[in-house]
Amino acid sequence: MFNVQLKNMAKVKPFRGLRPPKALVERVESRPYDVLDSEEARAEAGDNEMSLYHIIKPEINFPEGTSEYDPRVYEEAARQFQKFQDNAWLVQDKDEHYYIYAQTMNGKTQYGLVIGAYVDDYMNGVIKKHELTRRDKEEDRMKHVRVNDANMEPVFFAYPDNSVLDTLLERYAATEPEYDFIAPIDGFRHQFWVINDTADIQTVTAEFAKMPALYIADGHHRSAAAALVGAEKARLNPNHRGDEEYNYFMAVAFQASQLTILDYNRVLKDLNGLSSEQFLDAVRQNFIVSDKGTEIYKPQHLHEFSLYLDGHWFSLTAKEGTYDETDPIGVLDVDISSRLILQDILQLGDLRSSQRIDFVGGLRGLGELKRRVDSGEMRAALALYPVSMQQIMDIADSGKIMPPKATWFEPKLRSGLVVHKLS
User: Is the whole-model pTM more than 0.85?
Assistant: First the structure.
């Protein structure tokens, strides 16, 4: 007798997307809610009443200084969402579809499938996480999902490379997209196709059903909120069957090998009372330190870091024995630098709350690190080699959690190309 352990596989479904008419997409679409503050959203929306910011950053419809957590703000989101539908700025597709969303940055294009991801997969670990979430941020997004009865913005997944889906994506990419525009601010190209062929829809469902795991790349709070609201709706429905729309939430899933992860760097307010030479001496205990001069120096490989201090760039290479190659967390550069520099030498404490450190996404480049140190705002900067998607998947598979501020995905998903209604 063979004892066969049946594993859960990923379950996805197509859905009737709520989308802007082709002519209006560039007026509706926006950046995600969590990459800009209220005043930036107010400025970007300007006098454009079709901007999705009126729904996802609804505090912009109130006087400046109104809290985004004010109960009236959530009610305003629902009012705006209804207005968008009444005015046909968002129109629901008659049939269920999957969608393809492509992003082009610096000449490289990644193709994602817009899917309904299964709430139970999130709850039972088929959809895997690599970051901790904060309850207050979850609750904020849960209120937004509840009041709109919709996933206004997608979450960002990765899936193991799949040749069948790759072929399907290539076939659609050769056709005319439904949407095709260059986004303001980031300058990246965004394209969108509707998968309306029944056989293709069945292929997507079947191929995901072969996958033992999907991975949250970006949007852990949105994923948690969407899944928790879905589970809540199931619990409160006395006639729950399991096939209701609220059992699914909207995600864009990309092949893991296509994704671009940028470095996520650190700027430091002080050296914990040490002089520059004392600090470098302490760093030399665990790193090989080499002065690279005044030209910007970028880390060239794993376990090499760049330090900017007193107008000079230094290469720091972690010495053998300072990390554990068999530990998916301990081998990470973000862990090595946190343990041996930020904690042991600088004693920064909890990086999520420390006022002595700030984090700079790699899209801004190392010039931004230099600028903030040269201005006197910061004392030093530390640049890291980017985490790989394989490292993220290994950590998620092991059930462990990455250190804070470890990954920066780019480009960000635009919001407003498609919305998923829960009923």
Answer: yes
